[in-house]
Amino acid sequence: MSETNDVRCADVVELITDYLEGALPSEQRARVEAHLAGCDGCSTVLDQFRQTIRLTGKLREDQLTEPQRSTLLHAFRNWSSGTLLA
Amino acid sequence: MAVDRRASDEDLALVARLRAGDEEAFMELVERLQPAMLRVARMYVATQAVAEEVVQDAWLGVLQGIERFEGRASLRTWVFRILVNIAKTRGQREGRSVAFSAIAGDDLDRPTWDPSSFLGPEEQWAGHWSTLPFDWRGAPEDRLEGVETLGVIRGALDGLPPMQAEVLRLRDALGWSSDEVRNALDISETNQRVLLHRARAKVRAAIEDYLGSGIAR
Predict the structure, then answer these.
(1) In chain B, which residues have their Cβ closer than 8 Å to the Cβ of A59?
(2) Residue pLDDT, tens place only, B102-139
(3) For chain B, which domains are there?
(4) ipTM of the complex
(5) CB contact under 8 A, B113 and A49
(6) CATH architecture, domain A1-59
(7) Chain B nearest-CA residue for A11
């Protein structure tokens, strides 16, 4: 448990994204960092957020269906023949 | 106010190809953006079929406007601005005005973490951990890195309010910047962060549940 009593764990877990986004004012950022350095629970949570972000990065988007693809290709050909001839 | 990332050289090259009528360039962009566009359109209109129409209209808008693209935002942000405008207009025309809380969630001002994990106000260490969070480093590595974890993440995303899920997908799955996301989805910088935090917190909790099941804590 941290000795920097002015920052509570309950607050730090809600500031993790702001911290990772670099969105905290510098003084608050320093207090959060000091807390993280001394608090196993909160540094575990920070690590788990980083893992969560990394794992989410492995998600892949769905492929287009063939009808979706051909509809848009058709629309593009209509557009380009109209535009480029004009 | 932060400035949106300007169009990259890659964006400008793609735009030049579109203007020249290069259909491969167009289909490349479609493949990349269409799945997210469909999800975003669906937030504002009543059915998947209407969302498909909105996305098609958005692509026509993109083609018709491509000559006017100035590169002040990234190409994908610009495409989503067109999409969101069309989706909102279409939703309103159908008498379906969507409250922000309906798509963003009504839990934005509540803690993401179970308050009972922390010591109560009467304790000397109020607000500090009463029970340390489950340390999933104790779980087997292949369980965390396995393909099933991705299924757990997808399942968690399906259970989130759509705007929370989409902010997370755009940021963490597709690698958009925070400025791109807030401009694309027409939300404030603060809301972008709040939605992202809630979504990450819920996905983290889902991974914890998955890794924790069957393991002695």
Answers:
(1) 150, 153-154, 169, 173
(2) 999 999 999 999 999 999 999 999 999 999 999 988 88
(3) 9-93 (1.10.1740.10), 100-212 (1.10.10.10)
(4) 0.92
(5) no
(6) Orthogonal Bundle (1.10)
(7) B127
